[in-house]
């Protein structure tokens, strides 16, 4: 009952802020479109038999030379740009969510251990985090991705590209979560309910996972929400540079990289629409993330 009341309070608070409500609505719409891409997309971009080179480079349907079958136009292969955007959005969102889930899992476990055990475990984990902080996240993701690819045969690298990108992004950002969780655990460990649990004979694992961890998750949720935008932007940057998703698995970054080559030839729609979707997605996530931070962080109330 209390969780339902809390959810109702959050929805009511959001309704009083039109900008946040609009961002949440846009984000929800993008998520629904991405999830339902196989059913809503006019065509399947991976089906090469459906492509017609005679339909390549068509402008959006409302411009001269456009075709009503292709609302946002086509690319150099004759693929429907709207379908590519829906599938690319699906890929980018999936990569972002899985990468953040991996970062949260690693950072949460290591942060719990560091904050509760202290001593040499704390020192080892935090020094490892400090070392990783000296590397820019983008550079570290490139390094991890390159190492992962070097261990695979050439014919398997494209198939494994999705998992390599998720792994690279997930590993590159765990220290932020580990530091956040460690600070929350240290704060919670000295409270009376933890002392009472210890006096009652409850084991360390029970205290840590049943009492301390649930009370340390609010800041993790906030950072994870905002980190999704970081992961999506980083994946797009990697794909734009040619180190992310392959052309056979289009993401927003891949579509922007391909479309950039046609920007100065007048075929602006091939790069403009993927860029617009990427900006809209990242801004929406950041606005909702900022609002969650304001709601869940008691210091900001």
TrEMBL record:
<keyword id="KW-0813">Transport</keyword>
<keyword id="KW-0472">Membrane</keyword>
<feature type="transmembrane region" description="Helical">
    <location>
        <begin position="220"/>
        <end position="248"/>
    </location>
</feature>
<dbReference type="Pfam" id="PF00528">
    <property type="entry name" value="BPD_transp_1"/>
</dbReference>
<protein>
    <submittedName>
        <fullName>ABC transporter permease</fullName>
    </submittedName>
</protein>
<feature type="transmembrane region" description="Helical">
    <location>
        <begin position="268"/>
        <end position="292"/>
    </location>
</feature>
<keyword id="KW-0812">Transmembrane</keyword>
<feature type="transmembrane region" description="Helical">
    <location>
        <begin position="160"/>
        <end position="177"/>
    </location>
</feature>
<feature type="domain" description="ABC transmembrane type-1">
    <location>
        <begin position="89"/>
        <end position="289"/>
    </location>
</feature>
<feature type="transmembrane region" description="Helical">
    <location>
        <begin position="129"/>
        <end position="148"/>
    </location>
</feature>
<keyword id="KW-1133">Transmembrane helix</keyword>
<dbReference type="InterPro" id="IPR000515">
    <property type="entry name" value="MetI-like"/>
</dbReference>
<feature type="transmembrane region" description="Helical">
    <location>
        <begin position="93"/>
        <end position="117"/>
    </location>
</feature>
<comment type="similarity">
    <text>Belongs to the binding-protein-dependent transport system permease family.</text>
</comment>
<dbReference type="InterPro" id="IPR035906">
    <property type="entry name" value="MetI-like_sf"/>
</dbReference>
<dbReference type="InterPro" id="IPR050366">
    <property type="entry name" value="BP-dependent_transpt_permease"/>
</dbReference>
<keyword id="KW-1003">Cell membrane</keyword>
């Amino acid at each position: 009952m209390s969780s339902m009341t809390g959810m109702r309070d959050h929805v009511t608070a959001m309704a009083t802020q039109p900008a946040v409500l609009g961002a949440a609505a846009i984000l929800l719409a993008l998520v629904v479109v991405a999830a339902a891409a196989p059913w809503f997309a006019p065509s399947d971009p991976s089906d090469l038999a459906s492509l017609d080179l005679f339909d390549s480079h068509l402008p959006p349907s409302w411009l001269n030379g456009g075709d009503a079958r292709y609302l946002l136009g086509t690319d150099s292969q004759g693929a429907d740009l709207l379908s590519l955007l829906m599938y690319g959005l699906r890929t980018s969102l999936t990569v972002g969510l899985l990468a953040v889930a991996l970062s949260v899992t690693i950072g949460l476990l290591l942060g719990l251990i560091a904050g509760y055990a202290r001593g040499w475990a704390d020192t080892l984990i935090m020094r490892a985090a400090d070392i990783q902080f000296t590397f820019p996240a983008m550079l570290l993701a490139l390094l991890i991705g390159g190492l992962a690819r070097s261990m695979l045969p050439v014919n398997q690298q494209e198939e494994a590209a999705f998992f390599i990108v998720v792994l690279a992004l997930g590993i590159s950002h765990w220290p932020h979560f580990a530091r956040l969780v460690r600070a929350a655990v240290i704060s919670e460990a000295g409270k009376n309910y933890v002392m009472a649990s210890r006096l009652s004979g409850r084991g360390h694992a029970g205290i840590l996972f049943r009492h301390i961890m649930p009370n340390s998750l609010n800041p993790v949720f906030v950072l994870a929400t905002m980190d999704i935008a970081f992961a999506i932007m980083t994946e797009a940057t990697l794909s734009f540079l040619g180190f992310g998703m392959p052309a056979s698995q289009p993401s927003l970054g891949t579509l922007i990289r391909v479309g950039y080559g046609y920007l100065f030839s007048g075929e602006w729609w091939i790069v403009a629409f993927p860029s617009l979707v990427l900006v809209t997605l990242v801004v929406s996530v950041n606005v909702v993330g900022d609002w969650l931070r304001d709601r869940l962080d008691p210091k900001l109330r």
